[in-house]
C-alpha cells in the first residue's frame, strides 16, 4: 500500500476555508453585538429626568432622578423604584418614533 504524502499545499484550501468561516462569524455575530452594546451605553449615558423608559424586566416608568449608578423610576403615582442604570433597555418615545417612520 503506497503511503500518502501530505504537503502544505494540500492545507491551503482548508486554512482559507476556516479563515473565511471566522470572518463570516465575526461579521454576522460579533460586529452587530458590539453595535448593540455601544448603542445601549449611549442610551444609559443620555438618560435624564422625565424620560419614559422600559427596563429589562419589562417595568414601564418615568425617570425621576438619575444618580451615578442607579435611576429612580416612578411607576405609579408616588411609587418610585430604584433600578440599576444598565437595566434600562429603551426609551418609550424612541419606540413611537420608529413606528411612525415605518408607517410612512
Detailed description of the structure:
The chain is elongated and about 85 Å long. The protein is of the alpha+beta class. The protein has 2 helices and 5 strands; from the N terminus they run αβββββα. It has 2 domains: 1-45; 48-104, Roll (SH3 type barrels). 6% of the residues are buried. It has a 5-stranded antiparallel β-sheet. Strand 3 and strand 4 (79-84) form a beta hairpin. The longest helix is centred in the first third of the chain and has 38 residues, at 8-45.
Structural features:
2 domains, alpha+beta, single chain, 104 residues, SH3 type barrels
Order of helices and strands: HEEEEEH
* Molecular shape: elongated
Q: What share of the residues lie within helices?
A: 40-55%
CATH topology grouping of the largest domain: SH3 type barrels
Distance between the termini: 72 Å
**Number of distinct helices:** 2
Number of strands: 5
Question: What about the largest sheet?
Answer: 5 strands, antiparallel
Rounded mean pLDDT score? 88
Strand content: 25-35%
Question: Which radius of gyration do the C-alpha atoms yield?
Answer: 24 Å
Low-confidence segments? none
Give the CATH level 1 class of the largest domain: Mainly Beta
Structural class: alpha+beta
Amino acid at each position: 500500500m503506497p503511503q500518502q504524502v501530505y504537503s502544505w499545499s494540500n492545507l491551503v484550501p482548508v486554512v482559507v476555508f476556516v479563515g473565511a468561516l471566522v470572518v463570516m462569524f465575526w461579521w454576522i455575530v460579533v460586529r452587530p453585538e458590539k453595535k448593540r452594546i455601544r448603542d445601549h451605553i449611549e442610551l444609559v449615558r443620555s438618560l435624564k429626568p422625565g424620560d419614559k423608559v422600559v427596563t429589562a424586566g419589562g417595568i414601564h416608568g418615568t425617570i425621576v432622578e438619575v444618580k451615578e449608578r442607579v435611576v429612580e423610576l416612578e411607576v405609579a403615582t408616588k411609587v418610585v423604584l430604584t433600578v440599576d442604570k444598565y437595566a434600562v433597555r429603551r426609551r418609550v418615545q424612541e419606540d413611537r418614533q420608529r413606528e411612525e417612520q415605518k408607517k410612512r
